[in-house]
Amino acid sequence: MTGKHIAFLCALAAFTAAATAKTYHELFPDRTYQSQDAQQFVESLDYKQGTIQLSETGVELRVQKDFYFLSALDARRVIVDVWHNPRASAERVLGMIFPITHTPADDTWGAIITYDADGYISDEDAEKIDYSELLKTMQEATQRSNEARVKEGYPKLTLVGWASPPYYDKATNKLHWAKELEFGDQQKHTLNYYVRALGRRGVLNINFVSGMDQLSEIRDVVPAVLAMPEFVAGSRYSDFVPSTDKLAAYGIGGLIAGGLAQKLGLFALGLAFLKKGWILVVLALGAVWRIIGRWFRRGNTRA
Fold first, then answer.
1. What domain count does the chain have?
2. Between 20 and 30 A from 227 (CA), which of 34, 156, 270, 297?
3. How many other C-beta atoms can be found within 10 angstroms of the C-beta atom of residue 19?
């Protein structure tokens, strides 16, 4: 065998290891569903592991053996066909992460991946934010939004509090926090756990969707999920060039409160996911961002 052949085989092996798609029966050899539709659906998915390139984000996602990744196409099928959400709600989704112990047909958590190319998000405010005051402001904004929510046919939303307070790791430029949400009069509260990876041109969003009873499980897997996304050379946070690169209109505080809202002129509360009947609720309510804006203007005055 020549050196060229060996080099080719090594390159092929590296490519295969970078992203491996597995079938349902490879991952779940002893699992069957009574519903034929559910069985056909889970068998039709490509369950990926390894290093996955998220195009146009500058991110490599390194999915470990305890998890699997669904591509944008399969993730959108889950959101629309299984979770019964509007097709428009899945347009920005780049993929999803699930634990290897469950399929999307189970009552388990799932993590939805999106990307916002809003520019470089300065982290200078990270140590100055009073997260207790920010929470109160967000609770006020959520309460004021309920009249419009109800008119649109959505249940009343209550931001109960931090399920896990915001934590920013300056060394890795990654942020995570969690909110406890109450939809309508549902006794079982919903957990939204957020992971953010900051890059040169934007932020990668990983949003966990689950019930509050899964908080402990998600806390356990967050370190592994935080380690998955890495920006490639040229797209890293440290690669920012102030003289030429775009600067986002918000900082860490705005990212937690709903950074995309500032760009749109409305308060989106990030994305609020209702884990009941797999219904996704996207909050896009005008005028409420002004409340958040006043809080940040006060914060900037104090700084």
1. 1
2. 270
3. 16
